[in-house]
Specification:
Largest sheet: 5 strands, mixed
Number of domains: 1
Mean pLDDT: 92
Structural class: alpha/beta
Low-confidence stretches: 3-13
Helix content: 10-25%
Shape: globular
Distance between the termini: 30 Å
Oligomer: single chain
Length: 239
């Protein structure tokens, strides 16, 4: 884990230290978040809530507490509804950022104003409403609020090549939603929807019924000369 990675420190202006991380550190960060999801869900003092906003607020609070008390992750803070760095007016559901440090990853400098990893959060199934699309984890026919859609079109995370999506699974097991998401993507491809192709499908990396956590991966091309973006999908059963 990251706690075993080489970290060097020095004064950096008003910040306390420099943290130098390997290029794989963002994947380790995703692993940290994934490992914390069942701990957050199962906390006995956690109020029972259903809405995406409330769930994400709870998760943010839990991750801040866990990072502060975890060796190797205590330089992190988590924030919600953070403005996207490139597309003004867009807000990212959840972001980790440095806290009291300057973080260097492959020569790129990050301070506490910077986003280390953009994270989109969605409920499965999508809540029913006249302006909601059941496929909202992927795409929405009513707006550009689809989860994968936002990253694929560059509305979220245009400054990043790696991001994450967290699904609060409130009905059915992960394998059900894996099949649904693949079906929705294949239907977009078959209908000739601009920009979508067979490479957009998700690949299951791990499904642990004991913890109620599934991890999947997808990679998507983007317009306007943006490089491909990889999404790590973290699905937590909260039903």
């Amino acid at each position: 884990m990251l706690a075993n990675s080489a970290i060097t420190t020095s004064k950096s202006g008003a910040l306390n230290e420099d943290v130098h991380l390997p290029g794989t550190s963002l994947y380790e960060l995703i692993d940290f978040i994934s490992a914390e999801l069942p701990h957050w869900r199962d906390r006995p003092e956690r109020p029972a809530v259903k809405s995406e906003t409330a769930l994400t607020s709870q998760l943010c609070a839990h991750l801040n507490s866990s990072a502060r008390h975890s060796v190797g992750w205590d330089f992190l803070q988590f924030r919600i509804e953070e403005p996207d760095e490139v597309v003004k007016g867009r807000k990212i559901d959840l972001v980790p950022a440095p806290c009291g440090t300057t973080v260097w990853i492959e020569g790129r400098k990050h301070v506490d104003f910077d986003i280390l990893l953009p994270i989109e959060c969605k409920r499965l199934p999508t809540p029913k409403a006249s302006d909601r699309d059941e496929r909202e984890y992927v795409v929405s026919q009513y707006s550009t609020t689809g989860g994968i859609q936002r990253f694929k079109e560059g509305h979220h995370g245009a400054a990043h090549s790696l991001c994450a999506m967290i699904a609060y699974v409130q009905e059915n097991p992960a394998k059900h939603w894996d099949a649904c998401v693949c079906k929705w993507i294949n239907e977009l491809v078959d209908s000739g929807q601009t920009g979508w192709n067979a490479k957009d499908v998700l690949y299951l990396l791990n499904d642990d019924p004991a913890t109620g956590i599934a991890v999947l991966r997808s990679t998507h091309s983007r317009p306007d000369g943006l490089p491909d973006i990889e999404i790590r999908h973290l699905w937590v059963c909260v039903n």
